[in-house]
Amino acid sequence: MPFLTHGSYRIRYELDGPANAPAYVLVNGLTQYAELWTAYRDALVARRFRVATFDLLGQGASDKPALFISQDDQVAALHLLIGELGDGPLFLSGISFGGLIALRYAITHGKRLAGLVPMSCFAELPPQLFLLGNALRTGLILGGTSYLQDLLLPMNVSDQWLRPVLDKLDSVKRQGWLVNDVYALQNLMESFLDFQPLTPQLSAIGVPTMILNGEFDFLTPRALHETLRVQIPNSSLVIIPRAYHAFTLEKPALTADLLARFAEDVLAGRWQGNKAVWIAPEEAGGDLVPFPAGYDHLRAIPVQGTIP
Amino acid sequence: MSEFFGPLDSEGRVPPRQQTRVAAFLISAHGALARQFAFALPLKLESAWQTELNAQFYRETELVSLLLRATSWVPDVALGYMAASWETAWFPRPIEGIPDQPLALAVGLATLAHAAHAGIRPAALLPVDANTNDPFVMTLRRVEFESSRLLQAQILFLKGESLVPFRDAVNSALERRHTEVRKLWSEALEGVGISAREGNDEKP
Question: For residues A36 and A249, is the Cβ–Cβ distance under 8 A?
């Protein structure tokens, strides 16, 4: 298990796939750990990508700073990892908290990237997300990691995913509970206490950017992704049908296919952002279709839009 | 070596040798915290925050009582030596860099409590098939759950405004305490065939 060193802390990482291939770096969500990307690693390596996964500071087998974890340190850890990947084309993707770290990286080190894929992501903490974050933190404090998982699971995945595992939820939650510690998760959550919106800096992201958002994402709804689409010049927004916040867990084949196609299109010079809005296929390999013209993609009912 | 207790008996109970070692360590740590909170607790409370001292003292005492009663004790010849090293490690220790001695002592106690409550996760040693109706199993779950609640007082204090001028000193002392407590915990577990999860204490 290789480690990088950031100050006095170690960051556990893993590299897979051919050394000289274009690389994907995948950044975990707040309660996640690197092994949750296994299906992505396998799918992307099969399509000739190199794949880097790691545990953020405070997660899994990486060190867990006892009192504070700053988001700047997470970006620095990510920068260290990217430094291990040579000079070839590099694509960066992250989900939720990991998406935010990826955005921060793209703002400060965008020239190193060939493409960016923020998923279930946000650049601001509007009142709903701020209060939800506070409530989740209180849940962690009062009920521990297991209770936080109990809150997140029904919010972030569908009935179709939950129904077959309903009688074995403890085993679904167990690995996340084992490798993540309350104080470390709390430190990760409290890294938002001095959070400043990234929105004014998003226009500095010059690389091709595909923003992925679940159709039914409750935690980070469409409006938060819309901020990214509007502010990032070379972006497009892709809506994943019937998906919730944690669609990377629920739809790995589809999402890995979208990641690979995005990178292949960018490398071939075919990709154009145009701030377009797309609807992803239901299954891997299907066609993306443009969001119907004249309708408002921010609404859940077919309202004729006023947004260009 | 395994990361979990075992092999469990046919009733899903943890081997008594492992119960004894783990309970002895936890009693030593939580007992030391109970004693130190007891000394810090005034007869008459004068500030609102001192109510937390009262809570910490009684909750630590409860954990010790639970462990004493729920454990299947067996002789453990290594305990004498180990307990001496544990008790030495828990001695009150003012942290360096804070000139106000009472505050430095309070921070020292809080770093010890933070390390014990945050860094020691006895329930994470339980394998999936541990008997949830066994008192030792339930006790470990309770120790871990209550520790994460007790920890909140230490987090509030150590991250609080009053310690902002000493943040580097506090942070260094806390990281050292975590490393020290985790090392003792790992050694205690290794002696009964359990390898602690890879953590901050195992730097290359």
Answer: yes
